Write a sequence for this structure.
C-alpha cells in the first residue's frame, strides 16, 4: 500500500472515536431505556390509564347538565376528551411510540378485557381514542398525540449526531496535539539526515512524547559530537602526517645522493610512526564493540602488564588485594596499558604505582605517577582527540594525543568511567572505575 493511500492520524482517530462513541451511545441508550425509561413509562401509563377510566366513570355518574363543564375542565387540566359515541371514520392506530402501546396494555390490564383503540385526525392534531365501559354503556376517551411529548427516536438520533460531531472534534484536537511534536520530530530528523544541525526539541507534553524528544536530543548531540570528532580526526591526521612525510621526502632525496644506514633507520622510524598514527585513528574511528566478560585475576593482570610494558620493570609498584573480576580482558588490559605508558612517559624517573580496591559498590584501579601533572583546567580537555599539553607535536616527546581519547571511548563502550585527578604532593592519578556487579568476591 502506498504511503499516500493510508489514513492520516486524524482520520484514524476520528473513525475509532466515532465507532466507540456509537457503540457507547447504543449501550447507554439500551441500559437507560430498560432500567430507567421503561419503568417510568409503565408507571406513567398506569397513572394515565387510571385517570382515563376514572374520568369515564365520573362522567357517567354526573347529571347531564354538569357533564359539559366536566368535559371542559378535563380538557383544560388533563388534555383529555370524552365522547359518548366512537369517532366516525376512525382508523386502527399504528402508533410508533412505545408509550402508547404501553398505555393500551395498562388499560386492558386495569379493565380485565382488551381495549379497542382507534386513531383520528382533528384539525392539525392526531388523536388516540379508546373505548371504555362507563355505567351501563361505553364511552370513548381520547388524548392528542402531542400530550405524550417524549420522542425517544429523535432523542437517540440527536444524541448520535452530537456524539459524532464531538468525536470528530476530539479526534482533530487529539491528532493535532499528537502530530505537532511528531511533525517537529520529522523535520528535525530530516535536517539531521541531511547533515544539518537541528534545533533541540522541547521536552514537554505527554510523558512518551517528552521521552522521545529527550532521546532524539541526546542522539542529535551524539551525532554532532561524532561529526566534530570526525573533523578533528581528519584535521589531526592531515597535520601530524605532514611532518613525517616531509622528513621522508627529504630522506628519499638524500638516499639517492648518499645512501646510508642512518637514513634508512630514519625512514623506517617515520614509517612506523605513521603506521601507529593511522592505526590509532582507525581504532578511534571504528569505535569498540562489546567484548564478552571472563574471570580475570587482577593481581596477575597487573603483573603481566608491567612485564609487557617497556621500561616498567623496577619503576612500577603494584598495590592490590586479591580481586577476581568478571570483565572484558582485552579492553581492561588496553585501557590500563595506555594509562601506564602515559605515566611512564610523563612521570620522569619517579616510581609509578598501580593501586586497586573495592568500595561503595565500585572497583577502582588507579595509575599514579609523580610527574608534572596536568593543570585542573585541562583535566577534561586531554581526553579530546589530538589534544596535547606539549605544543611541539613531536611523537617522540608527546605522542599523537590519541591515547587518552582511546581510553575514554573504550571505557565508555564497556560502561566504565575514567577520571584524572591531581595527587597530593605532585603528580597525576588516573582512575578506572568498574561497577562491582562485574566483579567477583574480594578475598
Amino acid at each position: 500500500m502506498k504511503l499516500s493511500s493510508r489514513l492520516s492520524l486524524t482520520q484514524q482517530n476520528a473513525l475509532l472515536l466515532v465507532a466507540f462513541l456509537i457503540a457507547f451511545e447504543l449501550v447507554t441508550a439500551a441500559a437507560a431505556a430498560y432500567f430507567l425509561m421503561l419503568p417510568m413509562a409503565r408507571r406513567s401509563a398506569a397513572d394515565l390509564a387510571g385517570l382515563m377510566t376514572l374520568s369515564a366513570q365520573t362522567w357517567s355518574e354526573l347529571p347531564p347538565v354538569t357533564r359539559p363543564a366536566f368535559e371542559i375542565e378535563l380538557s383544560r387540566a388533563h388534555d383529555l376528551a370524552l365522547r359518548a359515541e366512537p369517532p366516525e371514520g376512525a382508523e386502527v392506530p399504528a402508533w410508533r411510540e412505545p408509550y402508547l402501546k404501553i398505555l393500551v396494555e395498562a388499560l386492558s390490564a386495569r379493565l380485565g378485557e382488551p381495549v379497542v383503540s382507534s386513531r383520528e385526525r382533528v384539525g392539525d392534531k392526531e388523536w388516540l381514542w379508546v373505548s371504555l365501559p362507563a355505567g351501563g354503556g361505553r364511552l370513548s376517551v381520547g388524548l392528542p398525540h402531542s400530550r405524550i411529548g417524549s420522542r425517544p427516536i429523535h432523542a437517540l438520533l440527536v444524541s448520535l449526531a452530537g456524539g459524532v460531531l464531538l468525536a470528530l472534534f476530539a479526534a482533530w484536537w487529539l491528532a493535532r496535539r499528537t502530530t505537532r511534536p511528531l511533525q517537529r520530530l520529522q523535520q528535525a530528523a530530516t535536517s539531521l539526515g541531511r547533515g544539518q544541525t537541528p534545533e533541540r526539541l522541547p521536552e514537554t507534553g505527554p510523558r512518551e512524547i517528552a521521552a522521545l524528544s529527550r532521546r532524539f536530543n541526546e542522539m542529535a548531540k551524539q551525532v554532532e559530537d561524532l561529526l566534530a570528532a570526525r573533523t578533528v580526526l581528519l584535521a589531526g591526521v592531515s597535520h601530524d602526517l605532514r611532518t613525517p612525510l616531509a622528513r621522508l621526502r627529504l630522506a628519499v632525496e638524500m638516499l639517492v645522493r648518499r645512501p646510508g644506514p642512518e637514513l634508512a633507520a630514519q625512514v623506517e622510524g617515520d614509517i612506523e610512526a605513521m603506521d601507529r598514527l593511522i592505526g590509532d585513528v582507525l581504532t578511534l574511528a571504528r569505535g569498540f564493540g562489546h567484548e564478552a566478560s571472563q574471570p580475570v585475576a587482577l593481581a596477575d593482570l597487573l603483573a603481566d602488564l608491567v612485564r609487557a610494558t617497556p621500561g616498567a620493570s623496577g619503576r612500577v609498584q603494584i598495590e592490590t588485594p586479591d580481586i577476581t573480576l568478571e570483565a572484558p580482558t582485552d579492553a581492561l588490559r588496553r585501557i590500563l596499558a595506555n594509562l601506564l605508558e602515559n605515566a611512564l612517559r610523563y612521570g620522569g624517573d619517579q616510581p609509578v604505582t598501580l593501586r586497586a580496591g573495592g568500595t561503595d559498590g565500585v572497583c577502582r584501579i588507579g595509575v599514579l605517577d609523580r610527574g608534572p601533572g596536568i593543570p585542573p583546567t585541562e583535566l577534561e580537555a586531554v581526553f579530546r582527540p589530538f589534544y596535547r599539553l606539549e605544543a611541539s607535536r613531536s611523537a617522540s616527546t608527546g605522542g599523537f594525543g590519541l591515547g587518552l581519547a582511546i581510553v575514554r571511548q573504550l571505557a565508555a563502550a564497556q560502561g566504565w568511567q575514567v577520571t584524572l585527578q591531581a595527587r597530593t604532593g605532585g603528580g597525576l592519578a588516573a582512575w578506572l572505575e568498574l561497577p562491582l556487579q562485574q566483579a567477583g568476591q574480594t578475598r
